[in-house]
Sequence to fold (191 residues):
Amino acid sequence: MTLGPTREPAPHRTKRASARSVRVMGVDPGSSTTGYGVIQSDGRRYELIECAGVRVPSKLSFPERLLLISKKLEEVMERLAPDACAVEETFYAVNVKSALTLGHVRGVVLLAAARAGIEIFEYSPLEIKSALVGYGRAEKKQVQEMVRLLLKLEEPPEPLDASDALAVAICHANTASTKALLPAIERRTRR
Fold:
């Protein structure tokens, strides 16, 4: 398992930009590499806190891999204290065994977030791509480039799994920000 934060995170409390700012952890579940990315956002601006891929050795048994993924994500959740955890839903592929394996990894991610008391949100790949690129069938490289631009990074985040996880986090920040504005908009339109 390797961890390569893109930057040293500052203490959680000092990163808060405002009372409306939210810290979101996005997760892209994978059986060999599970990507995670943590951002801080007010719904309009995004700041990268940390991202990496949790790589698990293929020589380990599947239960041991799940345990390693769980331990690493729990450590990150404890250290960075996100307000929300956004997880990519399983892509329903033709290969049933792959979908089941991914389902187990997703279960470990959901359990880790639930244990940490973090609110969980789930988004389909179509929703994530639409939120970032405006097109639900966008290529992975297009999503990665949009993540780079939104986070104002010099280089695209690596590995690709971490970039995908950041896309999930940004998707949630956008969605949560819009949902927070809806009651105020409804009140104004009733007048």
The chain has five helices and five strands. The first helix runs from residue 62 to 80.
